[in-house]
Fold this protein.
Amino acid sequence: MGLNLEKTLEFAVRLAYAAGEIQKEHYERRGLVVQHKGIINLVTEVDMKCEELITRAIAEEYPDHEILAEEGTDKKSGSGYAWYIDPLDGTTNYAHGFPIFAPSIALAYKGEALAGAVYDPMRDEMFSGLKGGGAYLNGKRISVSTADNMDHALLGTGFPYDLRTNANNNIENFNRVVHQCQAIRRAGAAAIDLCYVACGRFEGFWEQWLYPWDMAAGALFVQEAGGVVSDMKGKPLDLFGKSICAANPGIHPKLLGLLTC
């Protein structure tokens, strides 16, 4: 493939830190410009500033790489490399001053994530990982939890922006799973949810109607931390397949058995 992935990861980490600094600078600022992409789907000026910073740097450093970002795409062909970028995962949280959000950056080759960085600026937590090289939190290697009893499992999930009109909106899954586990959290930032599975804070996470930039980095971390990642039907994860079930090895089959999609 011809890339030095360690240097590529360092590059992604620097960009995630830089985007996080923008997010901290504008956090809870009066007059934040917020637009609506849908009834409950927001985008802020900070999303746009962070995406511009990240995509411009990638285009300069890796001009032959494709860029797929939440607010825009720069398609190139030939290299097989693509960057999946959510400049501000948890935009609704950010717009309301709820302190759970992060930039998520991942590099993939022919659809397989190779390196990623997710930075939680409010807790100063940098999650990073390399395919075959482990997953890390602030430079220390992380691993999934060892709990294998659903009664002891803290799980994460989320709901689609069109839940008011989409009958397949995960609410039935939530109602089924919540009666079988210790508790469920809905933090509103899938990238962070997946990081929490990777470092053992959650035993598992599932969600539907996600995009590659929501899943790529966090799914890589879960796998590198010893977890299991699939779609909600149990098939190998397809970053364009819209659903994910990620958990430690003991919980994954039990969680998967409760889900329909």
